[in-house]
Amino acid sequence: MIVPQLIVVMGVSGSGKSTVGAALASRLRVPFVDADDLHPAANVAKMAAGHPLTDEDRWPWLDRVAATLAGGASTGMVVACSALRRVYRERISAGAPGVRFVELEGSRALLEERMRGRHDHFMPTSLLDSQLATLESLAVDEPGIVVAIDQSLEEIVGTIIRELRP
């Protein structure tokens, strides 16, 4: 029997959340949602202008992320979401019990290189340092794993599936 899983693929901009999340969802045959698509228009405009979001900007968005995940509890779901701080992950977990996190980890140089290669995204590279300063990596008591992004997409997805096997 396959147990439906709720998985958040997390990390800073450029870590590959959307790419890894979509590939993971495809392998697991579950829906994929990019949490960027759940941001209110005001948040997108603020980030596009080069301004980091405040916690007050994030709470309604994180609640939408949690509600989206909770809606996929019967089938399983993968969501790509920055979830940079523990308190954000706790907010998501409170609204979507049983969620597990996959933190994508890479060097600043690799992250910046990836961001410079994107032309269809609202996050400017100037906000990378802000995100890295904000990032609180998964603690040992949080439900999830940390995966290095300096490997192929297939290797990353394979590692996630092996490590999160119920």
TrEMBL record:
It catalyses: D-gluconate + ATP = 6-phospho-D-gluconate + ADP + H(+). One of its GO terms (molecular function) is ATP binding. Coiled coil: none annotated. GO terms for cellular component: cytoplasm. Pathway: Carbohydrate acid metabolism. It is an enzyme of class 2 (transferase). CDD domains: GntK. Gene3D superfamilies: P-loop containing nucleotide triphosphate hydrolases (3.40.50.300). Keywords: ATP-binding, Gluconate utilization, Kinase, Nucleotide-binding, Transferase. Its EC number is 2.7.1.12. GO terms for biological process: D-gluconate metabolic process. The keyword Transferase applies. InterPro entries: P-loop_NTPase, Therm_gnt_kin. SUPFAM superfamilies: P-loop containing nucleoside triphosphate hydrolases. It holds the Pfam family AAA_33. Belongs to the gluconokinase GntK/GntV family. This is Gluconokinase. It comes from Galbitalea soli.
